[in-house]
Amino acid sequence: MKETLKDVYLIIKSLQRSAVKNGGRFYWDVANSDNLANLVNRLSNPNNRERQVIRELLQREHPFTLLDAGCGVATELSSYRIGNIKVNYVGLDKSSYMIAKAKKGYPGAKFVRGEVESLPFPDDSFDVVVLRHVLEHLENYKTAVKEALRVSREIIIIDFFHRLLPFGLSWKIWDKDGYWNNWYSKTEFVRFLQSLNISYKVTTTKGNSGQTAEIYILEKRV
Ligand SMILES: C[S@@+](CC[C@H](N)C(=O)[O-])C[C@H]1O[C@@H](n2cnc3c(N)ncnc32)[C@H](O)[C@@H]1O
Description:
This protein is α/β, with parallel strands linked by helices. It has helices at 2-21, 34-43, 49-57, 75-82, 96-105, 141-151, 186-194; strands at 64-69, 87-93, 110-113, 126-132, 152-160, 174-175, 179-180, 198-206, 212-220. The chain has a single domain (2-220), classed as Vaccinia Virus protein VP39 (Rossmann fold). The chain binds S-adenosylmethionine.
């Protein structure tokens, strides 16, 4: 509980800092914004602890397919390369700015512009779907999780920027200039997971802003 209170404090401070830094203006799908450039800087450490945990989860002998849903500038791909992960990668993002940066950074890789709430892929298209620091920014995370389950054959990895709230209420924050920055209730999220035909595990780790991040691994039941 003590740690969760510290997390609350850290996230409020970080929201205040980013609001000041961004002049309160931020849109996911606007190109050439300083705000997006700031965000890109914050996303680009392929070696942070959360990414190391994800790499450990992806260690396999055989090559596999992976959708990085809400890929940003695709730092995940750098991370997988560091870990020698044998992945056939596709990145998807709503923002043309992010997709353009990702394509520039990784010319050989496949990127698609699209929305995580309505993925442009048939059922069972990928072995693994990763949603890293994405659900927090959606109006309704349930649609995105169901879509991830639909297109994945095996597992879905959901990395929440900060550990979910240990009570029944979600804190939905609409940034006044155009994006959600939600902090969800763990009780609600777990109840939602239990309503799906899956099993899941959860692990926590240190995030890059000193907060505790929480990673869910959803396994489809066949
Ligand atoms: C905080 S960034 C995380 C990026 C990346 N997953 C990472 O960990 O570095 C959130 C990303 O989600 C994307 N995004 C937000 N809403 C989205 C949506 N509805 N569909 C697809 N991408 C979305 C944003 O454009 C942004 O690139």
